[in-house]
Amino acid sequence: MITVLTTRTLLTTALLTAGTAGLLPAVSAQAAAAPAPLWATATRQAAEQSARPTVPTLVDVRAAHHPGLDRLVFEFRGPVPARYSARYVKQLIGDPSGRPVRAVGDALLKVRFTKATGHDGNGATYGPARRTYSLPGVVQVVSTGDDEAVLSFGVGLAKRTPYRVYALNRPSRVVVDISTPYRTVMARNHFLNLRNFNTGHEPYTTAVLRPVIPPGTAYGALQRLFAGPTQSERAQGLRFISSRATGFSKLTITKGVARVYLTGRCTSGGSTFTVADEIIPTLKQFPSVKWVKIYNAAGQTERPTGPSDSIPECLEP
Fold first, then answer.
1. Residue 9 maps to a domain
2. pLDDT exceeding 90 applies to what percent of the chain?
3. What 3-state DSSP class applies to 199?
4. Are 173 and 80 in contact (CB under 8 A)?
5. Which residues in the chain belong to E strands, given as ranges?
6. Considering its fold, how many domains does the chain have in total?
């Protein structure tokens, strides 16, 4: 039997074939534009995050004495910073403020880390920005900068001595070993005891021990006083009341009279307790000191002569 295809039948078949062929690309494009499964997106994001370089984050600063040296340790979360260095400087300068940063000590060591940070969204990640130690060499460690992945600290030392810097892993640490090739003796610092003062129970000061280098024991004790209490002593309620003084420029002891020349502003703030109440007992522990005369930055004190203690007018309540 012979089937006869009419012109209309052929035309209909051609149109159907062409229409079907035109639909196939549209279906493929729609399938390609379909969103990726959630698990695939999460996997891709995790891979991207793991590929990003980890910036070392400072999580602890600590120091301790070992035979012949003080060891200062900076511990990081993540890898050791790409670059780290230490050098002696005449003055500590804040980064990026450009302003001087005060640290107590006869020598100043600046420690710097590149490609590292010491903060997160909640603030500092390593604790207080200024801390005091009761060690033969390390007196104080202060933060001098944490900006654009550059982290720096100033270290106040009792004396300028050789040092070395190196890195350790597991955990990531940068270590500064500072030589202490000298003898020390213990001296007392007197700090305000907040609990006693607030409850009116004398004495208002509590004595703590500090290592100082002879023969300048009185000078060393006064220097340590201006460094303030250690973190553990602060936890016990001890405070250093500076009365806005930033330190002292000179200490002389002649014929039983110690003369202390303060630096910075000098004000009692109306308080009956001032820096004089810490300086006087700290210096009178030494047999060579019977009287203490304290001068302001202008070289003034109320009773510059005679057998008596003396304070500047700015320390009066």
1. no
2. 82
3. helix
4. yes
5. 57-66, 69-77, 83-89, 92-93, 100-101, 107-114, 119-120, 123-124, 130-132, 138-147, 150-157, 163-168, 172-179, 185-193, 205-212, 238-239, 245-254, 257-264, 291-295
6. 2
Given a contact cutoff of 8 angstroms between Cβ atoms, the answer to whether 214 and 111 are in contact is: no
Given a cut of 70, the residues of the chain with pLDDT beneath it are 1-53
Strand order in the sheet with 245-254: 245-254, 257-264, 291-295
pLDDT tens profile 93-123: 999 899 999 999 999 999 999 999 999 999 9
One domain, residues 82 and 172: yes
Q: Is residue 225 part of a domain?
A: yes
pLDDT tens readout for residues 26-43: 444 444 445 545 444 444
Q: Parallel, antiparallel, or unpaired: how do β-strands 257-264 and 291-295 relate?
A: parallel
**Strand, helix or coil at 292?**
strand
List the domain range (segments joined by +) for residue 268: 185-315
Q: Is 13 within the bounds of a domain?
A: no
Question: What is the model's pTM?
Answer: 0.82
> For residues 64 and 71, what is the distance between their CA atoms, to the nearest angstrom?
5
